[in-house]
Design goal:
CATH superfamily of the largest domain: DD-peptidase/beta-lactamase superfamily
Strand order of the largest sheet: 6-5-15-14-13-12
Structural class: alpha+beta
Radius of gyration: 24 Å
Low-confidence stretches: 17-29, 246-253
CATH class of the largest domain: Alpha Beta
CATH topology of the largest domain: Beta-lactamase
Shape: globular
Largest sheet: 6 strands, antiparallel
Distance between the termini: 92 Å
Strand content: 15-25%
Order of helices and strands: HHHEEEEHHEEEHHHHHHEEHEEHEEEEH
Helix content: 25-40%
Length: 451
């Protein structure tokens, strides 16, 4: 009996020691996966609560649970509304991460005690009663085929948040998911890449950058990366090692672990000669953002607002940055559905808005020109300006169709020959077989019947 008691005490001691060691490990050396999860939750809640003005519980139960189903119930999420700050910790103690909101800058991962100086918030913009795009008023079509397409749950897809149809410069149809409306800022995910490419184009128009520039970073001097051009980054043919599938490097490190996302991407080794191989890469987009910011100089932080968002009337648009100040041009633009389709219409008009040419005259044509290395057997799928090409992807749409596409089935399809811009945004799993193709086909067919 005595031996049994000794053994029990020994077992209890070993278990307690194990718990202690495990706790110390989680406290001082938390694994990257856990740090990434708490960072993701902090950033996602912060952006959706303070930019999109959504209910915090709804964000946690949908967006956070969708991405982190195994750990969401073990996360302690504290929202400090007074300081517009979010703290997230695993089981309330471990891998603590913090996200801080700033007006017009969105949310950034910060350290525990870091609360930035607050500038006076901008005066809210009055919502014009003019017809979109000058204002927010719309005159919707009553066409039965279009209404049927917009309101068909199978075409909308699970988790639909917004569908908007623009024809000949006017919104003719729209529908929204529960809890969302025309003014709710929505994350574009990789649709942000195209906006980032346009900002680089504006820096080119301003004479501060060129497509053929090489020797882009001092850290690349003396090795083959010095041959990477701005055009290579735009076309996703830099040759830098990158995986979007979680192999190597860990894509979560870019937004959730790296204080300097551009340095994280910049330090990747070459896997192919520049210009020879297509490799879809969020790292290339962040490097492009860093380059145009460097080229613009002191005014870079205000550049997206002053040069693009304000001229187009995209009053809801917020492009977020990492802690170093580099815009996260691969995924982190929030804007309302009405503002996202303003951007799509801007591309349909070849970079002209209200009579002003905001991009180099042929720049949108360049963006749409195929990247030969992206041909997967049915024609190139990618354009030189971080755009997707409809024909190469097998979409049975007019040959001039090009697209912005993002994670979780975000899409803006632009069809110049039909004067059409079609947006679909949502929170939709990508492994359930849903495709936006049938929705696009139905809308295009309905709009053809209206002409």
């Amino acid at each position: 009996m005595r031996l049994v008691l000794i053994m029990l005490k020994l077992i209890v001691a070993i278990v307690l020691l194990g718990v202690l060691v495990f706790s110390v490990w989680l406290t001082f050396i938390p694994p990257n996966g856990l740090l990434s999860a708490t960072a993701y939750a902090a950033k996602m809640v912060c952006s959706n609560v303070f930019i999109a003005k959504r209910d915090a519980d709804a964000v946690i139960m949908t967006d956070v649970a969708f991405a982190l189903p195994r750990v969401v119930k073990r996360l302690n999420i504290n929202i400090d509304n007074a300081n517009q700050r979010v703290e997230v910790a695993f089981r309330g103690l471990f891998a603590k991460r913090y996200a801080q909101y700033e007006e017009e800058r969105g949310c950034t991962l910060v350290s525990k005690g870091e609360i930035p100086d607050r500038a006076a918030p901008p005066s809210p913009s009055a919502m014009s009663d003019a017809l979109w795009p000058a204002g927010e008023r719309v005159q919707l079509s009553e066409d039965k085929r279009l209404l049927a397409a917009l309101n068909d749950p199978a075409l909308q897809g699970p988790g639909m948040r917004a569908i908007v149809v623009v024809q000949d410069g006017r919104i003719i149809g729209e529908t929204y998911g529960e809890g969302f409306n025309a003014s709710t800022p929505l994350q574009g995910w990789s649709m942000t890449k195209t906006v980032n490419a346009v900002l680089a184009g504006m820096a080119i128009k301003d004479g501060k950058l060129s497509l053929d520039r090489k020797n882009l970073f001092p850290q690349w001097a003396g090795d083959a990366r010095a041959d990477i051009s701005v055009a290579d980054l735009m076309a996703m043919t830099s040759g830098l090692q990158w995986s979007e599938d979680g192999d190597s490097p860990d894509p979560d490190g870019l937004e959730n672990l790296a204080n300097d996302a551009a340095a994280f991407a910049r330090d990747r080794p070459l896997a192919a000669s520049p210009g020879t191989k297509f490799n879809y890469s969020g790292g290339s987009s962040v490097l492009l953002a860093r380059l145009w910011q460097n080229a613009v100089g002191a005014n870079a932080r205000a550049y997206p607002q002053e040069r693009l968002f304000k001229p187009l009337g995209m009053t809801s648009a917020v492009l977020e940055a990492d802690p170093s100040g580099t815009f996260l041009g691969e995924a982190f633009l929030f804007a309302s559905a009405h503002d996202w389709v303003r951007f799509g219409e801007f591309l349909r008009l070849n970079g002209e808005w209200n009579g002003a040419q905001l991009l180099p005259p042929a720049f949108v044509d360049y963006m749409r020109s195929p990247v030969p290395a992206s041909d997967e057997g049915h024609g190139p799928v990618y354009g030189r300006g971080q755009l997707w090409l409809g024909p190469g992807q097998g979409f049975r749409l007019p040959a001039d169709t090009f697209m912005l596409q993002g994670h979780l089935r975000q899409v803006i399809a632009i069809i110049p020959s039909r004067k059409l811009v079609i947006l679909r945004m949502g929170l939709t799993r990508e492994d359930i077989g849903y495709s936006v193709a049938k929705l696009l086909y139905a809308i295009v067919a309905a709009c053809r019947s209206n002409k």
